[in-house]
Design goal:
The chain is mainly beta and 300 residues long. The chain has one domain: Outer membrane phospholipase (ompla), Chain C (Beta Barrel). The chain is built from 2 helices and 13 strands. The longest helix has 14 residues. It is globular, with a radius of gyration of 20 Å. 30% of the residues are buried.
């Protein structure tokens, strides 16, 4: 069974155990699980003002991150290989991600809307590769601007909590021929039920189809939409991210599964599984399966 099929099975199982989850995880009194309203300050009682740093995406360090098919000869669709010879890369490296957001404008639309600035950085570091002088294989920078408006209605026991629109830039900050970057206009929609949260993010690429495109057809590999299912309970977190190109013919995408479990205080163990295209920008059209193990930090 391919890893991608395995992750879809995990996705279905995760959704099915919500009624039994109360006794699944041992309680950690020191860890508080945030609701959608608390994470995005959607209700008046959760408002905390502007320019205060908040957690965004998972913040983690993985000393062990293994790929079954590490990209030793990156190239864009329709382009020539970047290097004359394949790089002597190790299949095991270090991966880490930092991510935070801050509100820059509060209560701007009918007294309810907010504007956030977010920043995420992901690093793939060949720290065990002494022969190549331990380089950073890939660094991805992702600033974004997001306008959020709270929702307050329910359907079939599910609460719609927010809708939004954002501008997202992602780049690896490198010169040609290994430069990778793109800009997206992203819609945001989030719902919640008990300890489950679901984010839906479709997007439109703003800078594709030009003669100097760094990564042609990136939306056909990295995707045109993302669904993020999150289950949090007593410090444990199951996080499933599915991206898809939304093409009926020649469909591509990826699945990433994260499990974070309490160790001590705000420190958690972190297991990550990925299968598909676009784990990072240099690999946007490269298929691989990866496994990562490390630590992450509780949302603040």
């Amino acid at each position: 069974m391919q890893f991608s099929r395995l992750f879809y099975v995990i996705f279905l199982v995760t959704l099915s155990f919500s009624s039994n989850a109360q006794g699944l995880f041992k309680k950690k009194d020191s860890i508080v699980t945030k609701t959608l309203s608390q994470s995005w300050e959607l209700e008046k009682k959760d408002k905390n003002g502007t320019f205060k740093l908040n957690s965004y995406k998972p913040f983690y360090v993985m000393p062990v991150h293994w790929s079954n098919r590490i990209n030793k000869q990156p190239q864009s669709v329709g382009g020539e290989p970047v290097f004359d010879e394949p790089l002597e890369l190790h299949s095991t490296e270090v991966k880490f991600q930092i991510s935070f957001k801050t509100k820059v404008l509060q209560s701007f639309l009918f007294g309810k809307g907010d504007i956030w600035v977010g920043y995420t950085q992901v690093a793939h570091w060949q720290v065990y590769n002494q022969k190549l002088s331990r380089p950073f294989r890939e660094l991805n920078y992702e600033p974004e601007l997001i306008a959020v408006y709270p929702l307050n209605f329910s359907f079939f026991g599910v609460k719609a909590k927010m809708i939004g629109l954002g501008f997202n830039h992602q780049s690896n900050g490198r010169p040609d021929p290994i430069s990778r970057s793109w800009n997206r206009l992203m819609a945001h929609f989030a719902i919640e039920r008990n300890d489950f949260q679901l984010y839906l993010k479709p997007w439109i690429r703003l800078d594709g189809g030009t003669a100097d495109d760094d990564n042609p057809e990136i939306e056909d590999y990295l995707g045109r939409a993302e669904a993020n299912v999150i289950y949090r309970k007593n410090g444990h977190s199951l996080d499933l991210v599915v991206r898809n190109s939304l093409k009926f013919n020649d469909n591509h995408g990826s699945v990433q599964f994260n499990y974070m479990y309490p160790i001590k205080n705000n420190l958690r163990g972190h297991l990550q599984l990925f299968s598909g295209y676009g784990e990072n920008l240099i690999d946007y059209n490269h298929y691989q399966t990866t496994v990562g193990l490390g630590i992450s930090f509780v949302e603040w």
